[in-house]
Prior knowledge:
Chains A, B: GO terms for molecular function: 4-amino-4-deoxychorismate lyase activity. Chain A is α+β, with helices and mostly antiparallel strands.
Amino acid sequence: MVSLVQPQPIIYVLEPFGGSARLHNPMLPHVFHDDAAVTRGDGVFEAILLLGGEPTNLDRHAARFASSAARLGLPAPYLGQWREVTAAAAQAWHAQHGEKHPAARCTWTYTRGRESTGVPSAWVTVGAEPREHARARAEGARALTGPRGYQVDTGDKAAPWLTTGAKTLNYAANMAALRHAKQNGFDDVIFVDTETGRVLEATTSTVIVVKKGRRLRTPRPGQDILSGTSQQALFEYAGQRGYKCKVKDLYVDDLLSAESVWLVSSVRRGVRVTAVNEVELPAPKNAAEIAALIDAALAD
Amino acid sequence: MVSLVQPQPIIYVLEPFGGSARLHNPMLPHVFHDDAAVTRGDGVFEAILLLGGEPTNLDRHAARFASSAARLGLPAPYLGQWREVTAAAAQAWHAQHGEKHPAARCTWTYTRGRESTGVPSAWVTVGAEPREHARARAEGARALTGPRGYQVDTGDKAAPWLTTGAKTLNYAANMAALRHAKQNGFDDVIFVDTETGRVLEATTSTVIVVKKGRRLRTPRPGQDILSGTSQQALFEYAGQRGYKCKVKDLYVDDLLSAESVWLVSSVRRGVRVTAVNEVELPAPKNAAEIAALIDAALAD
């Protein structure tokens, strides 16, 4: 009989400023009601794929994490500490659950902390990959396109305090888009800029199209597109293997005319888009090759 | 000797769906790492002023809370339960701290809950009003104007899942604006639409201008301006007392030419804007009258 219950996660709570870390009982809560993460979504995070007890693509995650923290004016995280704790948690997970769960999800969370203390909160969790990920990789995702709901001001109109390049905890709008997709028989939303028609990103992943067998394209990251650690890893890895990888504006027509369209993110990895709105996107001959390429790039 | 330590808050954790409520020890955390509030800011809240052990403006808060929950696709909150718990917590606060803290802050928080359970999380806290509120009421606030950083798409371009009318936990961008203001010698930011120049709202309050002694104006709430419960209470109360209250587009020039400009919110109540960017706004003769009017409206 297959157990439907996922194993409990491993949680380490970190003291900020390079202090100690402690293993936290996952059956008990550790976040206070007045933590800025809870009251304002005022914090940053990274989701990191663990494979066989080892974190993947860690340098890019660490760099984006530091950059997100800086954009939010949080004290610079002691990345050495985050890496050490991650290694310990990853190994502990692997020792306990590696056989059944060789792929796991590690999350770094760093918040402005409690209103009553002013000390940032920081923790690392390692847990099983959500079940629906494997299904998405196997079956693909039907994607709606839609407006993000807002236009990010750039250039002279940009707010000097803009946080949109940071990977913050403010995902309520994206989660609403995702629920809307599911209520309408789809699995995800690819956001499109309403003024220019440019493809932006999906709710929690980067859009990549494949053309002519070995050409990979992704929209240029910027204030309305989060810079994707997985896309970067893929482009580096694929570029070294003879694929032509380019950052380039994409439009919905480019999705429809591509050989294949992929949603790429750290833990879910590569998911092929099997339909864009009402248009089916049949699998190309090289679908397995591209999926393997993404997996290999992320495992590299 | 004046104690600098604020008293511990009173926390009730509610079972959703009209279940029971329990008093929670405020020295212990109660939010789990995988609560959607923490991981996605996926929840809604209200901040309610308590005066002398009684909640104020509760019908409007309850209505907006229900509306926010509906916009996020959360199960409808059992408002009777929220009200009962609020009354109990408010009375407990008043019995313990009413003499030193006759004004208190009550917060309602309602989230999509833990990823591992799928059951919404719900709690009510009552605590001391932040110290800086009294200072802001006494000294006023110097406000920067600035872009919100994004334009909310409305009309045909609006996303069908748009959450911007909901009071969600996604305030990281507003908090960044507030930090920017403070780093530059200001106390708050009044957001202005970059395309039209319309005044929107401040980071956590509604903008109201007073002209010709007894005319009150506020921008029309909509997808880029949260409907303000305090502004509504003020307009109703003031309207019954001969003030002319109108919802009307406002521009920065209207702020500069007004007799006075106010930032109105539930717990901080009325704070007069003493400067807009580099322009000082001296107190008008009726400043005390307007401050008292706001207080009376919120206490009504």
